[in-house]
Design goal:
- The protein is globular and about 40 Å long.
- An 8-stranded mixed β-sheet has the order 1-2-3-4-5-6-8-7, sandwiched between helices.
- With 171 residues, it is of the alpha+beta class.
- The two termini are 26 Å apart.
Amino acid sequence: MFNIDISFEDISIRNVEEQDVLNIKNWIDNQQISDIEAGLNYGITEFHERYLEYFVSEGEYFLKVLCGSEIIGIIKGRIEFKNPNEVWIMCYLVEIKLYDDEISKTIINEFLKHLYDNYGISNFYTFVSANNQDMLRLWKSNDFEIIRVTSSFLEIDNEDKDILILEKIIQ
């Protein structure tokens, strides 16, 4: 588990603790996700297993995004310690009403800035289904650029889907 604690305005980004798992699972279940590919189709057992994976791994992070004391999002991924160090954002989910809001961009930027300022990490990566235009627009609005397309990476409802790898390098 990689410890992260960021605060700005009335937003905080903090590590998920075991007591948060059920609340986060319920929050995800209550989101009105229009794109099935954007959803996390985990039962609570699988969700708890993902938490445990993060907890025992030194390079993993699993973060809750709070506005005051209310969950408005999650960020999950890993930090790869190599030359240069990289951060992979495997999941960024915010309340659907915030996708086009400036705060969803600010959350990403503050997260990246924290890792750059405190750990010197400048290489950031994420991926998104080629069909998920809302998330693609969100990442591009944060200056992520598509660097690779992996064809037929996902299979959903017996249909192959392409995945886009995006990159942002802070200089």
